[in-house]
Design brief:
Blueprint: E1 8-9, E2 32-35, E3 42-48, E4 51-55, E5 68-72, E6 75-78, H1 84-91, H2 93-99, H3 106-109, H4 137-151, H5 160-168, E7 219-225, E8 237-239, E9 251-254, E10 270-272, E11 297-298, E12 302-304, H6 310-317
Parallel strand pairs: 5-8, 7-11
Antiparallel strand pairs: 1-8, 2-3, 3-6, 4-5, 6-12, 7-9, 9-10
Helix pairs in contact: 1-2
Length: 325
């Protein structure tokens, strides 16, 4: 398997870019609420400062090593995991119509929608204010495309580096609150307190950068292809790195879920997507939209501070799904 790595900053720059150094926010890089045009729906975005941090962990699993330096530009990340309230208008055209206050534009109509799931994709865990779940990465990206058609704003999945940086919130410890997993109960829904189900977003305390449920509740898609170590990034400062996906499996998932033990919720912990998550799907080929045996995966949005070109945006959204097996 081949991987594409983005620009790498020379190691000499470490001398003036200290670990976890954060850039001063610009006046236009502030928290905001995004209204979905033509509806009463909205979601909140948190301004994440640019900076440099050490990604990975020497005390974790083999796929978290080696620890390496990463520099990121500023971005916004959604305060909450995407909920069914926001996801369902994309999923069901008839439901979108009922939620719309004005006629739906041709640009919105042109977005390809998921096939309707043959199961209750809430798995009986709750819908209102609960995180949407069990979608494929392709489904998550097409939801971002629908948002773009609705708002004119480019939203996408976080890269692995962005996700870990935002989760750490300037801390190098195992969790943003320190090393003691006993404190997780204040911040996350996980195996010890979830009763094996999702919960409404925002019911636990946020991390220092205002992100709720960054650990637990549902694990969250990133854009990156999963690689089993960080050897390619060792000994240099990587600027906005991403392992651009070229194959259907595996992709990187972060944050741990309501099913996971505390160690899987660490900031550096990683999970690789698995085709077994579609094992009960009766379709041949398997669905490009749903993972019926992954009721623990959801998504969180990112908006870069610098908007890509129209061509770059279209290239991100318009990749054809890879046929599953």
């Amino acid at each position: 398997m081949s991987y594409k790595y983005l620009l790498v900053i020379p190691i000499s720059l470490i001398s003036f870019l200290s670990v976890a150094q954060q850039e001063t926010p610009t006046p236009d890089h502030q928290n905001y609420s995004q209204k979905i045009d033509g509806t009463n729906l909205s979601f909140k975005m948190q301004a994440i400062p640019g900076g440099v941090f050490k990604m990975g962990s020497d005390n974790g699993n083999a796929d978290e090593k080696p620890v390496h330096d990463v520099k990121l530009d500023p971005f916004w990340m959604s305060m909450f995991e995407v909920t069914w309230d926001i996801f369902e208008p994309f999923l069901y055209k008839d439901y979108e119509v009922t939620q719309s206050l004005e006629p739906i534009s041709s640009e919105v109509d042109a977005v390809t929608r998921p096939t309707k799931p043959y199961l209750d994709m809430t798995f009986g865990m709750g819908k209102e204010n609960h995180p949407a779940l069990a979608m494929t990465q392709y489904n998550a990206i097409q939801f971002c495309k629908w948002l773009y058609a609705r708002t004119g704003i480019f939203y996408r999945l976080p890269t692995e580096a962005e996700w870990e940086y935002a989760a750490r919130a300037g801390k190098q410890s195992a969790y943003f609150f320190g090393e003691d997993p006993a404190q997780l109960n204040d911040f996350a829904w996980f195996k010890d307190n979830s009763n094996n189900k999702t919960h409404e977003v925002g019911k636990k305390k946020p991390n220092p950068w205002g992100l709720y449920d960054i650990y637990g509740n549902v694990a969250e898609w990133t854009f990156d292809q999963y690689i089993d170590n960080y050897d390619a990034f060792a000994g240099k400062v990587s600027s906005n790195p991403v392992v651009v996906p070229e194959t259907l499996y595996p992709h990187s998932i972060r944050g741990g879920s309501f099913q996971d033990e505390a160690k899987a919720l660490r900031s550096a912990a990683r999970l690789a997507s698995d085709p077994i998550w579609k094992q009960i799907d009766p379709q041949i080929p398997k669905s490009s939209w749903w993972m019926p045996e992954a009721p623990f995966i959801g998504l969180r949005l990112v908006r870069p501070a610098v908007t890509p070109s129209k061509e770059e945006i279209e290239a991100y959204y318009d990749k054809k799904p890879i046929e599953d097996y």
